């Protein structure tokens, strides 16, 4: 990350997201007020919000239909999302995320999450270790993932409890959507 990026505190970002970053309907509503475009995928309508040359939000189905004119650089991203959701796995690590809209801690968590490839799952504790934190920071890592403005692109669905259980997923559909994405990506899932 360059020093030129201005990092806002997670408190300021939470205020941006209606004071409660875990309030999914409010997050979706906020994305709907940003310049955004929606597009159909095999799992339903997704949406990408942008500002200038950066992605500021992503919404999994059911995203509201939006037909704002969008910059041409987003065409390739939309194609890649569709391919991914058709089963042709994509790596979204190099996309132009608006890192300046998240805290330094959340940025570190999201950048580490991008290293977990399709078909893999990590525990929240493993992700904490990847950002130089003790396993006890797993809850803070989980909170950061719950606040992820780019679900799917930054793969917050690839993280599970230390005991292998599926834990919360703040995108529409919750754990059912998480399981669907993991199955699509070929992750080995075990029933209790």
General description of the model:
The structure is a single chain. The chain has 192 residues and is an alpha+beta fold. It is 34% helix and 12% strand. It is built from 7 helices and 5 strands; from the N terminus they run ααβββααβααβα. The protein has helices at 10-16, 24-33, 74-85, 104-113, 124-130, 138-146, 174-184; strands spanning 36-41, 44-51, 54-59, 122-123, 159-160. The strands form 2 sheets. The protein has a 3-stranded antiparallel sheet with strand order 1-2-3. The chain has a two-stranded parallel ribbon with strand order 4-5. Helix 5 (124-130) crosses helix 6 (138-146). The protein is globular, with a radius of gyration of 16 Å.
Mean pLDDT: 82
Strand order in the largest sheet: 1-2-3
- The count of β-strands is 5
Largest sheet: 3 strands, antiparallel
Oligomer: single chain
What is the H/E string?
HHEEEHHEHHEH
Structural Rg: 16 Å
- The number of helical runs is 7
In the predicted model, the low-confidence regions spanning at least 5 consecutive residues are: 1-22
The portion of residues assigned to helices is 25-40%
List the topology elements:
Blueprint: H1 10-16, H2 24-33, E1 36-41, E2 44-51, E3 54-59, H3 74-85, H4 104-113, E4 122-123, H5 124-130, H6 138-146, E5 159-160, H7 174-184
Parallel strand pairs: 4-5
Antiparallel strand pairs: 1-2, 2-3
Short description:
With 192 residues, this protein is an alpha+beta fold. It contains seven helices and five strands; from the N terminus they run ααβββααβααβα.
């Amino acid at each position: 990350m360059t020093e030129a990026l201005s990092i806002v505190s997670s408190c300021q970002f939470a205020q941006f997201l209606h004071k409660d970053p875990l309030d999914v309907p409010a997050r979706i509503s906020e994305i709907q007020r940003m310049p955004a475009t929606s597009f159909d995928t095999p799992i339903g309508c997704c949406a990408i919000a942008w500002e200038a040359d950066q992605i500021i939000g992503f919404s999994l189905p059911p995203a509201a239909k939006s037909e704002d004119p969008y910059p041409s650089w987003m065409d390739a991203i939309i194609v890649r999302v569709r391919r991914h959701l058709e089963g042709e796995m994509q790596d979204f690590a190099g996309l132009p995320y608006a890192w300046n809209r998240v805290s330094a801690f959340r940025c570190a968590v999201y950048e580490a999450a991008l290293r977990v490839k399709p078909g893999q799952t990590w525990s929240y504790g493993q992700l904490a270790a990847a950002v130089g934190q003790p396993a006890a920071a797993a809850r803070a890592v989980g909170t950061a993932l719950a606040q992820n403005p780019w679900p799917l692109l930054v793969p917050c669905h690839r993280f599970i409890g230390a005991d292998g259980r599926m834990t919360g997923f703040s995108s529409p559909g919750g754990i059912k959507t998480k399981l669907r994405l993991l199955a699509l990506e070929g992750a080995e899932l075990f029933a209790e």
